[in-house]
Amino acid sequence: MTSPLLNVTEIYASLQGESTHAGRPCTFVRLAGCPLRCRWCDTTYSFEKGERQTLDAVVAQVQALGLGLVEVTGGEPLAQKGTPQLLKALCDAGLEVLLETSGAYPFSQLDPRVTVIADLKCPGSDESARNLWPELGKLRRQDELKIVVSSRADYEWALRTLRLRLGDVKAQVLWSAVWGEVEPTALAAWLLADRAPGRLQLQLHKILWPQRDRGV
Question: Which of 89, 120, 136, 163 lies deepest, with the highest CB count within 10 Å?
Answer without folding.
Answer: 120
